[in-house]
């Protein structure tokens, strides 16, 4: 395992880290197979106070430098036309291009392709213009993701407000954070990596100069630990891309080769504060994607319970 793999080594991960066939030739769940009913039951025992903390960002309307297609809202009816007596109501329509750098969302296992294939060797053509995803769709997670969440807080470890654009989170960072927090990432866990990227955005405003993120060097470590879901306060890749011949390597290799589920653009600010106050870096985490038939992902509002 190299903290700074060469591009050739990274390209080799596409074969070396494959989970194709690991859970059968028909498997579409990938690393979510690690999150068993037993793991969920054990995670439920972490709840002591009932304190709940969101890990989702508010959905903002209007254009920003980070959203080529910003969310749209159309008021079908509003209180401005409410009757003086009797019943009235407010109705609205929302449209979201949730993949990107602003909305907290989970990528479906069908979201990324490499060499024309998706996870477990299925052809990319199974994601169609007419019907959406006919394999690997987000509805695979219709029963929700409920398990042990572990927060590894990089700014706290490094003594900074946030990590800088282009700075990658490496295996040595994760292991140092584990030691500092007194936790150990285990099979079936939901791993949350805070870089402070969302705090940087809240402080400096919408930015278009790249960002920090989990480095592709983490993938052997993640596979070895058996992480079920990786989430961070970034799009889960270092920007600018460090390797010219494979953009979005955490997606292309993590999703396609490993079947790794990714949660992008989380808000890890409030949970960072809560973890520090309670000196607890593990918690029950509930993530419930929408049942979007044929969807390549879903916006989510993850909830941590302490």
Protein architecture, described:
- This protein has 306 residues and is α/β, with parallel strands linked by helices.
- It has one domain: Glucose Oxidase, domain 1, CATH 3.50.30.
- Helix content is 22%, strand content 19%.
- It has eight helices and 15 strands.
- It has helices at 7-16, 37-44, 154-158, 171-181, 197-204, 219-225, 249-255, 269-278; strands at residues 52-54, 72-77, 91-95, 105-107, 127-128, 132-133, 145-153, 168-169, 190-194, 213-214, 229-232, 261-264, 282-287, 297-299, 303-305.
- It has a nine-stranded mixed beta sheet, with helices on both faces. A two-stranded antiparallel sheet has the order 2-3.
- The longest helix has 11 residues, at 171-181.
- It is globular.
Summarize the helices and strands and which ones pair or pack:
Elements: H1 7-16, H2 37-44, E1 52-54, E2 72-77, E3 91-95, E4 105-107, E5 127-128, E6 132-133, E7 145-153, H3 154-158, E8 168-169, H4 171-181, E9 190-194, H5 197-204, E10 213-214, H6 219-225, E11 229-232, H7 249-255, E12 261-264, H8 269-278, E13 282-287, E14 297-299, E15 303-305
Parallel strand pairs: 7-9, 8-10, 9-11, 11-12
Antiparallel strand pairs: 1-15, 2-3, 4-12, 4-14, 5-6, 7-13, 13-15
Helix pairs in contact: 1-7
């Amino acid at each position: 395992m190299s903290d700074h793999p060469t591009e050739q080594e990274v390209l080799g991960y596409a074969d070396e880290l494959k989970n194709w066939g690991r859970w059968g030739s028909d498997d579409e769940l990938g690393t979510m197979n690690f999150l068993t009913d037993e793991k969920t039951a054990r995670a439920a025992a972490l709840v002591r106070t009932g304190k709940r903390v969101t890990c989702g960002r508010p959905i903002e309307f209007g254009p920003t430098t980070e959203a080529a297609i910003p969310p749209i809202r159309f008021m079908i009816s509003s209180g401005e036309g409410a009757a003086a007596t009797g019943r009235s109501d407010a109705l609205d329509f929302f449209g979201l291009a949730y993949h990107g750098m602003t909305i907290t969302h989970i990528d479906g296992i069908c979201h990324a392709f490499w060499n024309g294939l998706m996870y477990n060797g299925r052809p990319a053509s199974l994601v169609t213009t007419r019907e959406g995803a006919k394999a690997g769709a987000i509805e695979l997670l219709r029963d929700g993701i409920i398990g042990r969440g572990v927060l590894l807080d990089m700014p706290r470890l490094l003594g900074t407000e946030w990590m800088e654009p282009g700075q990658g989170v490496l295996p040595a960072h994760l292991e140092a954070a584990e030691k500092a927090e007194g936790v150990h990432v285990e099979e079936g866990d939901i791993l949350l990596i805070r870089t402070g990227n969302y705090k940087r955005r809240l402080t400096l405003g919408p930015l278009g100069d790249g960002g920090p993120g989990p480095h592709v060097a983490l993938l052997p470590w993640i596979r070895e630990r058996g992480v079920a879901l990786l989430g961070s306060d970034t799009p889960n890749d270092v920007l600018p891309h460090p390797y010219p011949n494979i953009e979005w390597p955490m997606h292309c290799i993590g999703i396609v080769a490993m079947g790794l589920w990714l949660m992008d653009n989380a808000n890890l600010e409030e949970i960072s504060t809560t973890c520090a106050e309670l000196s607890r870096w593990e918690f029950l985490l509930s993530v419930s994607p929408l049942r979007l038939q044929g969807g390549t992902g879903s916006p989510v509002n993850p909830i941590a319970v302490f």
